[in-house]
User: Which sequence fits this backbone?
């Protein structure tokens, strides 16, 4: 009980806001008892948990070293900064925010370059003509090297860049870049274009666990409680509750509804009086309501769900499987 | 297996010192280059794949530095910085190099020789192999397996072939990096699938026209768009390759005749005299002029024999390169006979292009080799 269970959260920007919102939706309110400028926090009604606010890159390192139990950060940083990722990290869930693609981009003026195969040829031609290798500016040194090696491209060299990478070709410090892009506007503003098959990674924020952290019975129990809430909220978000009652509501009708609308019946089939509760994907709510009324339902009530707690917890199961034993 | 003392510091012993004393007596001045080196020349010359094996750090000015992963580049840099730069000069060295290795210590000793500025190419090449053999002999291994290659022969073949420039680049690059090139030729395809369909009509129209007029047109179009030099490539270079694609779309895999010619070339091996005869035959059959490269090759064999090396014992292969793109000609490796998996004991070659790539204003011929001290010592003690 002496050392707390630590969750690392990005310390600034959209990533922090989105991460806090994600926990809040699961009923886990992150609070900073010592003031907003403090980099240590807790969770409102769950004792024994410490929230560490650190930079997104540092989170990857802490996870690799086992310095924290859970972390929220981009898959791009995890794959870039942790060499043997499967040995150090358990991916628990992709969180649906912080989307970014890691791509290879070249000057728009290179009208002869569309594919990585073109780039391979241009790289060799460049070396033969200029007696030096083409320079590629990036902060994703490892992702780049692995990707280029898979593509068989050898005539290039990496120039590490920690900021404003898109400006490197115009500044003359590199010929091309590997960087993250969401909409491509920054690349276009710098007269760069993405290579057609130059997508290295589709990244988003992930909730991950560190294998190297201490995982005793106490830590596992805290993880189970956290993941129980997160999973309950995740299921709740994926469904609407649909309730109705009518005489002709029977097992056959339920089977058809499951087939057509992907609904679930968490509390079993219709009662003897024809009372039925369904969980329906949001996009299917109206077709389902029509279907039920066509078969005799007078009223169909639809409500949002806050939580759906289940005996099974797929997220905790994933953690247990990933940690082993 | 490793001869490094328990402290982990790779320190030369008397036997290794004896080896370099021999190099000094042969006329090679001893150099002690700095352990800490700028990382750029190694990354530029050896490729990004070496990065994961290098020990990198950043100095207070933000420059990327490394513990030297070899001594060829440091010795070349010291030579270029010396008053002898550009003049014939020979150096030897002995010291630790640092390369991450899974099965052997990452800090290990290398001795070696680098010879700069000699224009008697064949004789200089032969002397390197002879001195390499002295090194194995110094450790009691008198008859190692000798593997010989000549990157210049493949370059001469590719230059003589009637092929699109993109194909020539591809072959030269793959020769350097693929040990299986001979088996891969039928699968070697230059993909034009990504060429934009909207460009096809224009490319087809340009394909038959006067090349210089077409180049001028593309260059004009780019300059109208306000593009001069972006990303280190000039408008002329971009236009030239854009137009090359017009011819490439018809020629997306190697012509059958060229393929079988390259396959036949890469299958040639044996001792250098046999190989030379076969290469002459191939050049004559195909009507290719490989005379210059072959004359050098045969002259080198003559110098090897004159140095008392039994040429019949040399395993020459046209397909043998060392996977390092700065080699330009003669390459060799010495192995313990029957134990190639334990790694090369001595290896080297000619690297005439390297000095300009690290800043020499004019090309300087260069050739040299390195000796893996611990491997040789283990090899000698295991006998």
Assistant:
């Amino acid at each position: 009980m002496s050392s707390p269970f630590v969750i690392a959260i990005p310390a600034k920007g959209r990533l922090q806001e989105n991460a806090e919102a994600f926990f809040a939706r699961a009923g886990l309110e992150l609070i900073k008892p010592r003031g907003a400028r403090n980099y240590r926090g807790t969770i409102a009604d769950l004792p024994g948990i410490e929230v560490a606010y650190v930079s997104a890159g540092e989170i990857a390192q802490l996870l690799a070293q086992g310095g924290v139990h859970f972390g929220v950060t981009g898959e791009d940083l995890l794959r870039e900064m942790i060499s043997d990722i499967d040995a150090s990290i358990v991916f628990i869930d992709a969180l649906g925010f912080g989307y970014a693609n890691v791509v290879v981009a070249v000057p728009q003026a290179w009208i002869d370059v569309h594919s990585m195969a073109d780039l391979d040829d241009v790289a060799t031609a460049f070396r033969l003509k200029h007696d030096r290798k083409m320079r590629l500016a990036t902060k994703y040194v490892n992702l780049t090297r692995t990707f280029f090696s898979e593509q068989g491209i050898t005539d290039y060299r990496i120039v590490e860049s920690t900021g404003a990478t898109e400006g490197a070709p115009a500044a003359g410090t590199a010929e091309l870049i590997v960087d993250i892009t969401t909409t491509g506007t920054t690349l276009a503003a710098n007269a760069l274009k993405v290579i057609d098959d130059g997508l290295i990674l589709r990244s988003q924020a992930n909730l991950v666990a560190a294998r190297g952290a201490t995982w005793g019975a106490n830590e596992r129990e805290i993880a189970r409680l956290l993941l129980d809430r997160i999973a309950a909220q995740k299921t709740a978000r994926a469904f609407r509750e649909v309730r109705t009652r009518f005489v002709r509501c029977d097992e056959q009708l339920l089977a058809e509804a499951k087939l057509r609308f992907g609904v679930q019946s968490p509390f079993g089939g219709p009662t003897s009086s024809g009372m039925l509760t369904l969980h329906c994907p949001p996009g299917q709510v109206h077709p389902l309501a029509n279907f039920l009324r066509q078969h005799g339902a007078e009223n169909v009530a639809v409500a949002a769900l806050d939580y759906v707690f289940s005996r099974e917890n797929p997220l905790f199961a994933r953690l247990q499987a990933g940690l082993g034993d | 297996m490793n001869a490094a003392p328990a402290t982990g510091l790779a320190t030369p012993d008397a036997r290794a010192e004896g080896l370099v004393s021999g190099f000094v007596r042969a006329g090679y001045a001893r150099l002690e280059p700095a352990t800490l080196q700028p990382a750029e020349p190694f990354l530029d010359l050896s490729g990004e794949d070496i990065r994961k094996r290098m020990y990198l750090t950043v100095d207070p000015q933000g420059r990327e530095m490394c513990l030297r992963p070899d001594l060829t580049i440091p010795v070349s840099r010291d030579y270029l910085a010396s008053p002898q730069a550009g003049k014939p000069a020979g150096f030897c060295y002995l010291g630790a190099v640092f390369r991450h290795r899974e099965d052997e210590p990452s800090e290990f000793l290398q001795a070696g020789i680098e010879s700069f500025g000699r224009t008697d190419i064949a004789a200089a090449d032969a002397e390197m192999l002879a001195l390499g053999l002295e090194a194995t002999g110094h450790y009691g291994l008198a008859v190692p397996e000798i593997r010989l290659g000549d990157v210049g022969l493949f370059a001469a073949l590719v230059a003589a072939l009637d092929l699109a420039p993109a194909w020539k680049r591809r072959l030269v690059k793959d020769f350097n990096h693929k040990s299986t090139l001979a088996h891969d030729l039928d699968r070697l395809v230059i993909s034009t699938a990504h060429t934009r369909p909207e460009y096809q009509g224009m490319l087809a129209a340009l394909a038959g026209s006067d090349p210089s007029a077409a180049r001028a047109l593309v260059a004009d179009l780019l300059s109208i768009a306000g593009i001069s030099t972006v990303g280190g490539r000039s408008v002329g270079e971009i236009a030239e390759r854009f137009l090359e694609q017009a011819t490439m779309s018809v020629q997306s895999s190697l012509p059958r005749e060229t393929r079988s010619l390259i396959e036949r070339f890469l299958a040639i091996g044996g001792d250098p005299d046999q190989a030379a005869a076969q290469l002459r035959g191939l050049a004559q059959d195909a009507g290719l002029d490989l005379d210059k490269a072959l004359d050098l090759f045969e002259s080198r064999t003559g110098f090897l024999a004159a140095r008392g090396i039994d040429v019949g014992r040399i395993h020459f292969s046209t397909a043998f390169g060392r996977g390092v793109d700065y080699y330009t000609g003669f390459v060799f490796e010495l192995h313990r006979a029957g134990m190639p998996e334990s790694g090369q004991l001595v290896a080297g070659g000619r690297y005439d292009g390297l000095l300009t790539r690290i800043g020499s204003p004019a090309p300087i011929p260069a050739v040299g080799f390195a000796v893996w001290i611990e491997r040789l010592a283990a090899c000698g003690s295991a006998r």
